[in-house]
Amino acid sequence: MRPLSNFGSVFRPLTLVLVIVLFAGGYLPVSSEILPDKLKQITFGMGWEPVSFYPLRALDSASYYGQTLVYEGLVGYDQRLRIVPALSESFSVSADQLEYRFKLRSGARFGDGQAVTIKDVVDSVKLAMAPTSPYRADYLDIEKIEVKDRQTIVLHLGQPCAPLLSRLVELRILPARLLGLPDGGRNELARHPIGSGPFRLRSWESGSELVFEPNPFYWGSHPTYDRLVWKIVPDHSLLAVALKNGELDVVQCEAVDWSDFLSKQKGNSLLLDRFPGSRTVFLGFNLGQQQFGDNALRQALSMAIDREAIVNGLYSGYATIAGGDFASSSWAYNSGIRQWPFDLREARKKLLEAGFQAIDGRWRRRSTGELLAFSIATVKEYQSIAECVATDLHKLGISAEVQLVEFTTLRQQYLKKGQFQTAVWSRSVGPEPDCYLAWHSRGPLNFYKYSNPKVDCLLEEGRRTGDQLQRRQIYWEIQKLLSEELPWLFLVHPDLLLAHDQSVTNLKLPGQNSSGLPWDNPLFNAARWTKR
């Protein structure tokens, strides 16, 4: 996710009506196209827009959200996050877990009306497996793609891969006619996606809005409204005031905006749907640097941070204290892992155990006299959390300086290249507990240089074991090891909050109080939303 800075283009230029909203000493220009009475529109507000609709380029959250509106996989998640048929009308897995058979849904068509064929499926799988694909590791176990007939495809695996079905939820089926272009369809699909999902993209004005309309060729139930307009509002306070003034119908809301502003409006017609979050905010250590190599040091730092104060002060209670980075709604979540409660006295004991001594209120390594001090790199979204962490560490006698960095710079220049000491960052997870990418010593998202041969073995075993009870025990053990070694200081799990006008319903479906939404996707239910 990347916040935009183009404040002047928060909304589209005025078509018929211009409303000026005075807020916090500034003006928010808000425009809306007056639609015929028969045209029903839901307007969704968010601080970011997609980078691209080409699935193999855009790895940011906003692009993922947008792609889920227009594309569909062979399988999908239901409201309880069970894997169910989607573009395939049925699927099966062999007893030895080496053959995955899918029967393509009869009559399935893309948003331009053309039929979805087996060739589209085959070419989409091959694209995801290609050496240039960022998702290649998810499909390495596929050794052969067999076409049985015009509707049936079988994926043959070299060895079992328990997460494969969940990976196929995210695999976008794209038109082979575009994938066959010299650039693989990248330029066309980036701005003009052609998918088989419930919506199709009608228009996109960068920095302002995206307009989606129901896909008339969609195989399933169609949305009951005529347009979904995604307005880009880069400031969360302006999102809140636009919702309050009726310019938006639904927003992904900051907890403080709801508790301090939106919930206190007189004659309030606004409602809040709260989902258990699948995102973990953490302080990650660069374990490639010797100063962070001691478990006792990281445990001491963990006990110096008042997470409860962060939950209540920054999230108004709409978050939970994190003991790990598995979502509490996951079937693999281990609620019994070790916690490190806020305790400065015990933190000081741990620092002594780690070989430090306090001199004039500052901690130094006994063997070298080196001062315990470091920087905390983060983005604007997590600046307040980083500052709380730095303040808490200062109370213990540790200097930690917050360094604010632009999103792409932090990821590409700092994290990927290991040019940081610590970072306040976040990771979201899906319903599948496989965490190879983040925690394996060779994981492509293991920016923190964590390496534990036992964890590596458990991760490999978790991928090959088909029995869910056995997998649960494996991931429980992984969480236990991570909670003791603390390569990250797990801070909070923020709830996903969707504030909306009471005229919009079905934002939360039965069962989602406990299951949440996959990857914290606020648009997961968008095709089911209704507006009175």
Describe the structure.
The protein is an alpha+beta fold and 532 residues long. The protein has three domains: 7-68 and 197-276 and 495-531, D-Maltodextrin-Binding Protein, domain 2, CATH 3.40.190.10; 75-179, Dipeptide-binding Protein, domain 1 (Alpha-Beta Complex); 279-494, Roll (Dipeptide-binding Protein, domain 3), CATH 3.10.105. It is 27% helix and 25% strand. The chain contains 16 helices and 25 strands. The strands form seven sheets. The chain has a seven-stranded mixed β-sheet with strand order 10-11-12-3-13-23-14. Strands 16-22-15-21-19-20 form a six-stranded mixed β-sheet, sandwiched between helices. Strands 6-7-9-8 form a four-stranded antiparallel β-sheet, covered by helices on one side. Helix 11 (383-396) links the parallel strand 19 (373-378) and strand 20. Helix 8 runs antiparallel to helix 10 (344-353). The longest helix is centred in the last third of the chain and has 18 residues, at 468-485. The chain starts with 16 loop residues before the first strand and ends with a strand. Mean pLDDT is 91; it is low at 1-35.
